[in-house]
Amino acid sequence: MTDTASFPGTAHRRAPLDAAQILHLKLEGLALAVIGLWLFADTGASWWLFATLILVPDLSALGYLAGPRRGAVFYNLAHVFTLPALTIGVGWVSGTSLVVAVGAIWWCHVAIDRAVGYGLKAKDGFDRTHLSL
């Protein structure tokens, strides 16, 4: 069944998430944040580095200055687990703990966003996310 009443003029192929599904995704984000914190702590990097860089991925919201579609692309690229996972992998393979630490901080940012209910942005507005569709 499709539910398009919430989004006039758009065709959605799935119903919005229910409360239990959203809770599951938030708990998953919390678990992933704990893993990221453990990984960061294991690098031995300074917690000042963590505090300094934890909000850097939110600078991607500046992409919205170019419009909602481009903004969503920039924001979503900075808020998926793929790029921080690749950063962690590069740091691990190269033996560079600072790169692992930066990737772990980025990972934590994404995970904490999910845990508090922020999701990937829809292309038609900043307020619509994959957790609220």
TrEMBL record:
The chain crosses the membrane at residues 23-41, 47-66, 98-120. Keywords: Membrane, Transmembrane, Transmembrane helix. It comes from the Bacteria. InterPro entries: DUF4260. This is DUF4260 family protein. It comes from Maritimibacter harenae.
